[in-house]
Structure formats: structure tokens, C-alpha cells
Amino acid sequence: MSRNVVFAVAQMGPVHLADTRAQTVARLIEMLREAHGRGARWVTFPELALTTFFPRYIYDTPEEYDAFFEEGLPSPAMVPLFDEARKLGVGFYLGYAEKITEDGQVRRFNTSVLVAPDGTILGKYRKIHLPGTKDPIGDIEFEHLEKRYFEVGDLGFPTYGTDDGRFGMCICNDRRWPETFRVMALRGAEVFMLGYNTPTRNIHYPEPAHLREYHHRLSLESAAYQNAAWVMAAAKCGSEDGFAMIGGSAIVSPTGEVVARAASEDDEVITFSCDLDLGAYIRRSVFDFARHRRIEHYGPITSQTAIEVTE
Ligand code: ING
Hints:
Number of helices: 9
Radius of gyration: 19 Å
Oligomer: single chain
CATH architecture: 4-Layer Sandwich
Structural class: alpha/beta
Bound molecules: D-[(amino)carbonyl]phenylalanine
Number of domains: 1
Shape: globular
Order of helices and strands: EHEHHEEEHEEHEHEEEEEEHHH
CATH class: Alpha Beta
CATH topology: Nitrilase/N-carbamoyl-D-aminoacid amidohydrolase
Strand content: 25-35%
Low-confidence stretches: none
């Protein structure tokens, strides 16, 4: 049996500090329309899709960095995108910087939202694996200060039932941690949606430039195969005010194969007609979790954070 659904990944080129929310949302709407024109029912947009990747800069006060955050869902800037998506009947994943006041306390997260084709907000995900540092490391070019501006996500790794199947979300660095996808697969996810902003140079350890793209692709392909799920990965990329980020947006099959890939570092829509039953044979055989997993031996995965050598 096949359950074919057309998915789109909407890669964004650079968003510069001087770009307005309205200009950026207009780009998202244009790609939404192109995806719809190609028959897509779902579109995955990047991480922090409404602004430049501001954690590369050093800010000391909320007055300085709150300009990058959205309040309310949809926030005022998001409304035109939500309206157009509902009008066209297209669901989407959108990454954004979330500011919310809960119990009188202001909280800030690197967040993604999943919206159904009828405009229903199915749920949010708040980034759990925050890379980089809280304080500047003094790199001559840029920083990676997500731990400075965002709290660790507090929503876990939920999955969402939709008319087309069960989806899970994560964000950027989450894709490098296999636990991310295994938890969502154990909760029935058939499709993983994620956005990313990945600098071409790693400021934390020197490595050849080609490894940025390789590790990105390796993370997606292994996640897809080892969890028998489709992966939708949307980059925001290119040179944002001179700071380069990798492209490589892709749609990956449950077999681990890249079936569609962006060719540019600009706004680019890729689509594929995904058979959501394709992963079923893998989940009934090599990755039949019920038959093959041995959780009695996996204790350290949740009882330890760091490496511990006891013998
Ligand atoms: N970006 C990068 C990513 O995980 C990074 C951060 C780069 C971590 C290189 C480790 C090595 O793709 C975000 N936004 O997480």
C-alpha cells in the first residue's frame, strides 16, 4: 500500500540584519505559493526563519536582542504567512525565536511550530540541544551564543498526528544527537521536520570545510534510516552580512537516501512525492523496535550525561 504525499522544503538564502520581517515573510509566502503550485501539502521552513542568525553576535541586554524575537502565535509578522497557508490549504513547519511570559517570567526559546493545512496549530517544539556557549569565546569573526539567548527547550520531543501521518520536529543541532530521532520514532513519527542555520566555519574546533556538509548529510541520512522515517531539512544559508552558512537542504527517504536536494544557497523550493508507507517494511524488519531493541542494556543513555569510565 502507498500513502503518497507531496512534501516541500523551502530553503532560504541569507537574511541580513537590515532586512525587515515583512520582506522576509514575503519571501516565505512566495516559496509557499511555489510549493503549493507543485502540489505540496506540507512545507518545512528553516530555523529562525524570520531573522538573521543573531546568535553569531554579542548582545548584553534584552533591550538589544528582543528585536529578534516573536511574541504571540501567530506573531504579527507571521500573520500573512498563516493566512496564505490556510487559504492555499498547505501545512508548514516554521522556525522562529519565541519570547513568552509565563507566570510573570519572561522566557526565550529557539522554537518551531507545526501548523496543519487548515491553519490549526498542532504544536510547538523548543530546541533542546543548544550548541556553542553562553559567554563569548573571543573568536575574531563571530560567536555561537544560543546558550546566551535561549533556554533549553522544555517540551521534550513530541509527535503530532495529522491527516497525512505522524510528524515530529527538531531544530538544527538536535539533528546531530541520535536520541532526538529515536525518542520521536518511539512515539510513532514517520516524518521528521527540521530547520537549520549552520555556519561554514566551526569556531569551536578547526576542521576541514567539507566536513560541515558531510556531517550535516550524515546526520540526516542516519536519522532517516535508523528510524525508518522521512526527513525534511531546510537551511537558511548563504552569506548573511558576510557570515557564510551551508546549504544542502534535503528530503531524505526512510532508506537513508537523499531523494531531493537544493542546488543553490538562495531561496529554493525542493519537493518530492513521499510514500509514507515506505518505512513500514524497515520498521517490520531490521528496525522492528519491539523485536530487536534491548532496553535493559541501554541504561547509561538516560542515567549518564557525560562519559564515565568505571573499570
Ligand atoms: N548550528 C550549528 C549546527 O549544529 C554547530 C552549530 C556547528 C554545532 C558545527 C557543531 C558543529 O548545525 C545550530 N544553529 O545549531
